[in-house]
UniProtKB/TrEMBL annotation, chains A, B, C, D:
Keywords: Carbohydrate metabolism, Isomerase, Metal-binding, Zinc. It is an enzyme of class 5 (isomerase). It comes from Niastella yeongjuensis. Residues 9-199 form the Class II aldolase/adducin N-terminal domain. This is L-ribulose-5-phosphate 4-epimerase. GO terms for cellular component: cytosol.
Length: 232, 232, 232, 232
């Protein structure tokens, strides 16, 4: 039995949640799940319809983006995943989708303002939209550079990837991550819903203010602080 | 057999309607059902996915917010429910969701204008949006104060909780209630649909007028007045 | 076997299409089907959830709105149906819903402009929005007067109910009709989709022009003219 | 066994994908699949509900629009399909729908701007909206002329039908095509999603810029260029 079976299975299950949560049309999305001990991650093969996915066809790739095991070509976004795993050593899974509302914000090249507690339950900041990449980065090692565009954005804004587990890449689409596949997919779905609510909020009130600091802090603390009292 | 079984079962069934009616993503909502004779209510355990809910795990809490029975931690919003039961003695169930359109109006910090008979069949007033809470209330006993923010809003506007069975808490999300679990969930779903229709109405005609008084009165009376002729 | 069985069955089946087509929330809609020879129509009982409907509980009412047979209270909108059957002698079924987009246009008090061939396949005019009723009509025999508000609107605009099989009642919601239950429900669903497309059209281009006359005529004729070539 | 059985079966399967992908209401759409060796195509019979479709009732038509085999009347749009097959000799299937967002852009008479990589994965240009047809074309051989309106638009803009596999016909609705039925339906669904995202993008940022050339080129090349690395 393969030593990669656990992450292949976790990766398969996480990928299959994307169509269930209406986060993908056709094959417009992918999830990877890492094994930090082995220094590799499992990722969806490129262009395979979800209904045809099989767990043991998840491709095994190392953190430099080199294929370690598998007969199929991995997701075309594999190098972006590799960079994020390499640079951010506490994430265990990554999700990329073209979910409708989050992608619309990315195309609009705007951060998603923090308008309410649904957002504050997950983040204390506007969800960042990294600017479109420079022509040099695009014409170079594109997917590799996409990873660094994400990391640079976090560094410039002094954000922690452990607190803010999602980003929009300008003109492109969202990425989300987490400690494991379930959490990363959860974050991708939360991002889509927060994006939809923020869009509607501005339509209903173009001058809607950002959430006040006391509420941002309260909702974050009750779910993630040292005295958190949400969940079991 | 537990004396709480009836409200646990009613609470379980009411909670399970939330995903069926598309009112919740993941665990972003909760329903409680009270037994006025016993002076307690049953409420969803915190953070448990709907598909994993079990009726006898509904937590039993008194109207001061103290756990009376149950091994799980109750919803993080439990104290808000407790305050409403304590202050408003004729409500039998409470629903809290982050349903998309109602939450967008809450984030926009606007009352939902009464634009048509769909609204007037259920309310005679704009659906109130309580202002965001003061920093003192937020930093104090937050969920407890959320209950009082709701009650204060009704008192200031001289609204009756028996007639208007729903509210938006500014920057947060909606609450609805009713004589029992089914009615409270019904009200939460009506609020979401009325919120959606009002949003679309303003998009189609930014100068759409409020419903005229004669229609407000007629639709309310035919469904709720002493000579009501709606239903069996 | 009851002589009303055929229309009760047809009425039951037509009503059951409303939730399938996402045209109703809870009980916010009703369908009636007439038997012109017997001078009566079958209509949904008031306030009964669709899942609990039974064909032989459809209430039989005459064209003056008097109950002829049945133990249940008919839809609160029954008199509106009666007036339309009495005044327009070629319609065989009527549908009333509060479908989301059509209701939003009714609340916005605007006709739905004819923007494309989807609309022209079914109508050659903007879909009329009758103005909100006068206070006298509302305070009088309300549902009866609603029927006359619809008929007056058609008369004033010189529209034919045989060509235009749908209307919005201002501040209220849509009505549609047709030769039988299936056609009336079809019209209600077409109205909802046309309402949605027209809303989006104006959002995408606030100056979108109405459809040109040649296209209006062509699409109408190819589906409904004497040399129609649509369908079998 | 009929020599048309293969395209009838492929045509049937492609048509049945339209309701699954939410691209049609009732019968508002049709797919055809061609056999280039036989010089014919199979197309949906006119006005038949999808649930009643049967593969061997797909009508066989030649590239001049003449019925070759079949007892039913073909889609009213058949001549438009015939013209496209005749003029563009490398397409194997055509889809016409009135899908909601694409139709709204057609009614708005606007090209869909290329705002992001979801679009660039499939096209390098704004999705063209052919202007509404002249009165002469409409009053003449309408469906035949609709085909030429599409071809004229591509010629005037110097677009290749092999690269851009979709178009909006102003005031009407979208057409898409591809090498086979699956690809043509895929293109129709991508068009609908791109139309929806572009609408939302402009709502979120009315000044959203078009995608930069480097990204347009990169995404097209990685999926369709000579060194493409998307898919298996």
């Amino acid at each position: 039995m393969s030593k990669y079976q656990d992450i292949q299975q976790a990766c398969y299950k996480a990928n299959m949640q994307l169509p269930e949560l209406n986060l993908v049309l056709f094959t417009f999305g992918n999830v990877s799940v890492a094994d930090r001990n082995l220094g590799v991650f499992a990722i969806k093969p490129s262009g395979v319809p979800y209904k045809d996915l099989v767990a043991d066809e998840m491709v095994i790739v190392d953190f430099d983006g080199k294929i370690v095991s598998g007969n199929m070509r991995p997701s075309s976004d594999t190098k972006t995943h590799a960079v994020l795993y390499k640079e951010w050593d506490k994430i265990g899974a990554i999700v990329h989708t073209h979910s409708t509302y989050a992608t619309a914000w990315a195309q609009a090249q705007r951060d998603i303002p923090i308008f309410g507690t649904t957002h504050a339950d997950h983040n204390t900041v506007d969800i960042p939209c990294a600017p479109p990449m420079s022509d040099e980065m695009i014409k170079g090692n594109y997917e590799f550079e996409t990873g660094y565009q994400i990391i640079n954005c976090f560094n410039e804004r002094k954000l922690s990837y452990e607190e803010v587990e999602m980003i929009l890449v300008g003109n492109h689409a969202p990425f989300a991550w987490g400690k494991n596949g379930d959490k990363a997919v959860y974050n991708a779905a939360v991002l889509e819903e927060v994006a939809r609510m923020a869009y509607l909020t501005e339509q209903i009130n173009p001058k809607a203010p950002r959430l006040k600091d006391a509420l941002i802090d309260k909702h974050w603390q009750r779910k993630h602080g040292k005295d958190a009292y949400y969940g079991q």
